[in-house]
Amino acid sequence: FVLSYFFVRGSTFEDRTLTSLHRCTTNVEAFFRFRNTEYKMLHSPTLLYSSESTPLVVLAAAQIGGVSLTTFPDKGISGDVEPTLLLEDGTKIAGTSSLLRFIARASANACGLYAGDIMSSTMVDFWIDQASAAVRGGSFQEICERVAAYLSSHTYLVGCTLTIADLAFFHQLLNSRQWEAIKTRPSLGHLLRWFNSCMMNGTLRDVATAHGASFFLTLKTLRFQGIIESCVSTSGGSFKINLDNATEGCVVTRFPPEPSGYLHIGHAKAALLNQYFARLYKGKLIIRFDDTNPSKERDEFVENILQDCETLGLKPDAVTYTSDSFSQILEMGSKLIREGNMYIDDTPLDLMRHERINRIESAARGNTVEDNLRLWGDMIAGNAKGLECAARFRMDMQSDNGSLRDPVAFRCNLSPHHRTGTTHKVYPTYDCACPFVDALEGVTHALRTSEYRDREDQYHWVQNMMGLRKVHIWDYSRLNFVYTTLSKRKLQWFVDHGYAESWNDPRFPTVQGLKRRGLQIEALKEFILMQGASRNVNLMEWEKLWTLNKRIIDPVCPRHTAVEDEGRVAVTLLNGPVNTESVSVPRNKKYPSAGTKVSSRMSRIWLDLADAELLEEGVEVTLMDWGNCIIKKIFKDGPSGATVSMEAELNLKGCVKSTKMKLTWLPNMNELVPLKLLDFDYLITKKKVEEEDNLADVVNKQSKVEIRAHGDADLGKLRKGDVLQLERKGYYVVDAGFEPGVQPMVLLCIPDGRTRSWGVSRNK
């Protein structure tokens, strides 16, 4: 099908490739005549290329395939000369396509660069030839449109993973000015989607960083800035921002989660943005645990946050803890008291809050330095008097900015700290510790959500009073979703009150919850990328994220069949097989690599009650993956009128296109796999949750639906985390595998981006 789908006019692929190869080889041979001695000293295969044009896809293929190369970028080679590989025996291989083929053959088969079976490998070669044919000229757009049409039902060019076919075509588009001019045309939408997906490939990005090529700043070699802009342009997000005083190689960003819960989708945006800018400027990324509240923090949360960061593809240059700097922060507190910039206040909390709102100075504001140091000692000791006190910055009680009205800097807490135990009795607030540790660790740019904008003056005041260098702040909009809270305090409430199983509950907006629900991390990253670094605040729908997810899973996931237990209807096929017939059918008709499954055909089968209720005697229907049958007799329950059984006759010569109903069915046999199908609604009934809302008033007490069913025998081969489609029911992810005699297989329904027909979302 694919081979007949394309036809390229003009010179053949071979003509074009050989002409390019001859021109490239001639240039490189001339170069070797001058530098032959230098290259003879190198024992491993040497990749020679122009320093103006890094062969990104070749280097990425080598990393994926585990092929060791010695790289030799040289300013003496023109940027339009193709890369060349020099082998130890003097053999030279020139041209990106030839190098990709060589590396794929030299790599381990498990890496999948050349796909798997012979047919797939042949298709890889075909697509590489297509890439070579996609040159500037009249046929370029035509080829792109045909590839786009092909990709409308495929995630990758061959198979379900990245191959050298993808790398070759990606390379061609990346270096084509014509692609830049036409890529936003509607007819090329699927090709642009695939192109953006390649752009976000972690190996490609890592290779670019390792070889000193910026994804976003090198125009000819890696035009990723334009790619990202095109990716986010349709959603209003943008990365067209400049960090103040950002110098390449000197930028340091930090992602500072508090270990009081798991990472949620809002944290994912913060984490990926910080990594984006750190890599954009060839700088450093720090993951710092803001562990300043021992009452809420646990090692469990630290471990799971690190796991979530790994899931998101974060590669920090350092992992630190605010608690590492506790002693220095306390010393700074003493210094601020001696300088008159901090005082100790024993005003009750409610009165302190009232005074701050009404701009009334606390009586303790007039304490002498000696009194403050004495009370500070009580706080450090954690004695009875110290527990009554809080240390406050002396800022401006008359300021229109409420965050500057002498905020609390330190408070006592006798709970054991998850790292330091009972060493400390007094802890800094986030607003005190963050600007201090940012400066201490060399952070140059602090990215914060716009809700902290009022605290920027406070942030800089702290650094100024402490005699620290200024850290630049960039704020961006936080993610807000309908019927969802991202407050860790409120999420903990759902766990504590039994409305959620844990922090990885599939109804939670946490990274682990979403992944457990069947969200592919690639979809999450693409969604975050589409938001950009915009400062616009809006309430987002979940459908957009799940639609992206469907686009990834639908082309490749296997298809299976299930019939619900309740009310299922037995059908006797009067002319059905006397003995059970086993037939091999594809698990995904559009994706052969998904393999096959066994379909057992027999004279007694099951239908879903909902389907059976729509049938009438004499109607011809299609049994999927079998053929047509004619309903002869329907038997109903007298009191209820519900269909309980029926008789039918096979009509396998009938035209399946002529029937209106295509029915899923299962053989009436003991080998069927028992299933527990779980579907979920929002945990909250209010579209936009406000800070003052009482969760008990807006909690959805019926957010989970369980249906018992049986599925085809091949379902038993699936394992936890596998994604599938139950035909005519939806997409599911395996939450627990089938254990005969112990537990049924548990499948969680994956949203597909469409409006739900039940629950809270039905009323949106």
Layout of SSEs?
Blueprint: H1 2-5, H2 13-40, E1 46-50, H3 56-65, E2 70-74, E3 84-86, E4 92-94, H4 96-106, H5 118-133, H6 140-151, H7 164-174, H8 177-182, H9 189-199, H10 202-210, H11 224-233, E5 252-255, H12 265-280, E6 284-289, H13 299-311, E7 318-321, H14 326-338, E8 342-345, H15 349-357, H16 369-381, H17 384-387, E9 390-393, E10 408-412, E11 426-428, H18 430-440, E12 445-449, H19 456-465, E13 472-476, E14 480-481, H20 488-496, H21 511-516, H22 521-531, E15 539-540, H23 543-553, E16 559-560, E17 562-564, E18 569-573, E19 581-586, E20 596-601, E21 604-607, H24 609-612, E22 620-623, E23 627-636, E24 643-651, E25 662-663, E26 666-667, E27 673-680, H25 695-698, E28 704-711, E29 723-726, E30 730-736, E31 745-750
Parallel strand pairs: 1-2, 5-6, 6-7, 12-13, 14-15, 16-29, 18-24, 22-25, 27-31
Antiparallel strand pairs: 1-3, 3-4, 8-9, 9-10, 10-11, 17-28, 18-21, 19-20, 21-26, 22-23, 23-24, 27-28, 29-30, 30-31
Helix pairs in contact: 2-5, 3-4, 3-7, 3-10, 5-7, 6-9, 9-11, 12-22, 18-19, 22-23
